Amino acid sequence: MSGDVEDEFLYDRLIEAVALRRDREAFVQLFEHFAPRLKAWLMKSGVSSTAAEDFAQDAMLSVWRKADLFDARKARAATWIFTIARNRRLDVLRRDARALPSPQIEDEDDLPRPDDILVQADEARRVREALTQLKPDQVEVLRLAFFLDDPHSEIARRLDLPLGTVKSRIRNAMIKLRAILEPSEESPR
Amino acid sequence: MNSTQNPSEERLIAYAAGTLSPPEAVVVAAHLALRPANDAWVRRLQAVGGEFLQTIDPSALSHDALARALARIETDAGEARAPAPLNDMPELPAPLRRYELGPWRWVGPGMRVRDVHAPRDGDCRVILLKIDPGRETPRHTHGGVELTCVLSGAYATETTRFEVGDLEEADESVLHRPRVVSDEPCLCVAALDGQILLDGWLGRLIQPFVRL
After folding, report:
1. How far does the CA of residue B200 sit from the closest CA of chain A (Å)?
2. Angle B9-17/A151-159 helices, nearest 10 degrees?
3. Which residues of A touch B70 (CB under 8 A)?
4. What residues of chain A lie within 8 A of the CB of B26, using their CB?
5. In sequence order, what E strands does chain A have?
6. B100 with A86: Cβ contact below 8 A
7. Average pLDDT over residues B114-132
8. Range of the domain at B93
9. Per-residue pLDDT, A57
10. Is B1 in contact with A104 (Cβ distance < 8 A)?
11. How many CB atoms lie within 10 A of CB A152?
């Protein structure tokens, strides 16, 4: 599904270059690849173009600041940047005006966990392969579930499906995904 | 294992995607700290998110976007905020340690509550709840979803037993009366949405005085 077959580890190396040398040229490449994708992600949930671009800017600044926490053995570049953006999203977009800030969630979540042996460097490849084994409509609901703020009712509206169908389609896609990615664990939960 | 002691797949995907309401995300984070298998699954889901991010159709940025980003990193002095200090409860799992906590409040016989100063979402908020052995909370229903994670001890409802790390999802359709079944007090973290409506004589008696 990804077009980066010829140099799968390019973005991992770019983040490491930022971490090691504060390499601005590497940051430019990361920015040009990921900022338009982060913007697109936010816009899918109905955020305005300007707000989505501000979000992408802030997320990429976090990438610059936190590059030394990146560990390609724990999570690949796209996953790591997705996680940073996801934490910002949780922290910023949904924050109640009366609420106290919660910088701690973001900081704790980004730290690699030394005992995290399950997530290996080939996780992204396995996930990519697993997604190709799902039915296209299952991939579509999963994708929307990741991008939309209020996934169930929004997916139902966009795909013109009853709410119950959306929920069972997401659940079936998740069960299939688990069966592919965690086959050895008979009762993973 | 009974599926009600784990988060639903929808809730995990919302957590992984960052769309879960912040109070619920706090409770799920506590659960994941106590359940490594579910934590590993959420990390896999984040790899799914990474793959979707990689393959999304990009949106063009404004012309000066890169210049602005470079100007920001040029003048960036790093994170201005130091991590919040640890709170006074070292027994809490790591995701809960840096939230400020309100004072313990008595809310019924053998039952204390303190607020967790995590981000709210409308009426939804996070509390710690400590109930003595053998006590049961007044029977109650909820205005909205209640998400509870056991941090120490254990409690049981009419149908299910909840141990350390277990997560209970209850909504307005559930009328329940949790009873502490461990020898030690049961400590829970919960996200409450809306006012809890207490049922029964004790509930009616204390309802005017307590706000859960």
Report:
1. 34
2. 100
3. 24, 27-28
4. 105
5. none
6. no
7. 87
8. 1-212
9. 95
10. no
11. 18
8-state DSSP, B157: -
Q: What is the pLDDT of residues B60-76, one digit of tens each?
A: 999 999 999 999 998 87
Q: Measuring CA to CA, which residue among A82, A77, A83, A85 is closest to residue A109?
A: A83
Measured in degrees and rounded to the nearest 5, phi and psi for residue B182 equal -95, 165
Band of pLDDT at residue A44, cut at 50, 70 and 90: confident
The label of the residue with tokens 């390019």 reads A10
B50 and A82 within 8 Å at the Cβ level: the answer is yes
Give the number of C-alpha atoms closer than 13 A to the C-alpha of residue A178, restricted to the C-beta side: 19
Q: What is the CATH number of the domain that holds B28?
A: 2.60.120.10
Two structure tokens written together for B187: 């400590």
Domain count across chain B:
1
Report which secondary-structure segment, H or E, holds A176.
Answer: helix A163-181
Nearest CB to A89; choose among B18, B38, B66: B18
d(CA A101, CA A57) in angstroms, rounded, equals 20
A 49-78: CB under 8 A from B? 49, 52-53, 56-57, 60-61, 64-65, 75-78
d(CA A86, CA A63): 12
Question: In the predicted model, is pLDDT for residue A154 greater than 80?
Answer: yes
User: What type of residue is B70?
Assistant: L
Q: Are B142 and B191 in contact (CB under 8 A)?
A: no
pLDDT digits (tens, 9 = 90+) for B86-110: 999 999 999 999 899 999 988 878 8
pLDDT on residue A104: 36
Any B CB within 8 A of A103 CB: yes
Q: Kindly state the average pLDDT of the residues B108-113.
A: 86
pLDDT tens, residue by residue, A98-120: 343 443 344 444 444 444 434 45
* Contact list, B72 vs chain A (CB under 8 Å): 57, 61
pTM, to two decimals: 0.82
Q: Quote ipTM for the complex.
A: 0.81
Nearest by CB to residue A95, choosing from B22, B48, B51, is: B22
Tell me, yes or no, if A90 comes closer than 8 A to chain B by beta carbon. yes
What phi, psi does A32 have (nearest 5°)? -65, -30
Residue pairs between chains A and B whose CB atoms are closer than 8 Å: 227
